[in-house]
Amino acid sequence: MALPVGILDQSPVLAGTSPREAVLATIALAREAERLGYARYWLAEHHAMRGLADPAPEILLARIAAETTSMRVGTGGVLLPHYAALKVAEQFRMLEALAPGRIDLGIGRAPGGSQRVSMALESAEIRDFPRQVLDLLGFLDGALPEQHPFAKLIAMPSGDSSPEVWLLGSSDYSASLAAQLGLPFAFAHFISGDATEVTRTYRRHFQPSARAGEPRVILCVAALAAETVEEAERFAATIDLWRLRIRRGIDLPVPSLRDAQEYRYDEHEREEIAYNRRRLALGTGRGVRERVETLAGAHEADEAMLLTITPDYASRAHSYELLATAFALAPVLSEV
To answer: The domain spanning residue 29 has which CATH number?
Structure first.
């Protein structure tokens, strides 16, 4: 059976472009992703970062849902500690009413920014995350326990269908919580690398629930494809430099290819780049497919999602086109 493949979009702001252009590029890419046959399209959440333009995926998701007709669309994810569970439930019940049967609610506990961001957002304590998840599920499904103080509240607009909920994570903590609650799990390989023990923990401890009778895993992989391996290596220089800057607290847009090529790395930085490259599937479309399928097999993943950032939006779109061909995705014919 062919591996279903989706896209995770961080709405990168590239050097020389504006945040608005990054958002418009996300909308255009979502339309193209559906045409190419991708299974899902998820939007990430980040705050106060000059290189990433989407702090409100639930808002942009409404536009993406309106621009598409068949592909599942969602968040990868909503960072729940920043919000009240009821508000998130209402937002996604509204999205479900607008695009029934197509909405995914991926939730995470990462801050998506600095500690100061969490303070400005008046975020809940991380230790409250499990309770928030339970409250969110209860509001979505109208299934809060009778003794719950908000049991009589109804998340509107109510309806027969509900968003598909995924727990996102890069560690044993998230894997264990997803298993305990019986939720599908999306593992951030692009953050943690291979770490197969995380998804093994999830499968080993999974407890069936009303939302999932068996474990389900999406593997989220950083991927970059080009016509040749050499071209892919050249494009990847921007990611190399951007990741170095982020680790050093330098908040700038994704660097241009020229800036990346002209940067002079010291020995320690080159070692860091080599380490980071282990989390990137890089090469031709066929080569990237082979790497992603190998990773998916090691993690027993049911699906893969691909995160691609390149020096310009055209090469990013072309990377996804090459990968759609390599994975033999079925293009969606537009209605005339």
So the answer is: 3.20.20.30
